[in-house]
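Page 47, continued from p. 46.
Same chain as before, 188 aa.
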Amino acid sequence: MISRIYISHSKGDESLAMEVSAALNRIGLENFAAMYQLSPGISRAERVSFGIRNSDCLVALITREGSVSTTVNQEVGLAKGLDLLIIPLLEKGAKIPFLIGQSQPIEFIESSFRDAVGALVKTLRDLSRLEWLRITCPCCGEEMTQYLTIQDDVDESMRRGSCLETVCSYCQNRISLDPRTFAPIPKV
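Result:
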């Protein structure tokens, strides 16, 4: 069962890693990302080691920059040595590290990154028993917890090109959700 995930990424890919982190938070998966932020008293190497050793899975964000990052390659190596499940998100044109060359990556181009995050969420749902969705209402700002939409309904919504719909339990406004990442879609 997967409950904690480490997101390996290069410094230049921190915004993509935060997008992955937000999607994982919405489906109730604890994750370690943004390891470039400093914590007093704890070295970056200790934070990384702690994050990986206390995770059930590593998501390797492999972009053109990330594929040549010594940090990403070392993190992948540590996870491989610990026999963690490694799920690569691979940007088209980037080279996958040889330690995970046999893996089946989730490929993306920059304009379809949310599709890759959606595929990652679906993969994690297949491997875990995820039941809850945490979202912040874009109307009133309250965070709420609801049952996670069943995967068949999510798949159907994606096939139709439509949003998932829910209602805020606080302000009763309708909320449209991106079926790939469960992110609220702002009203226009």
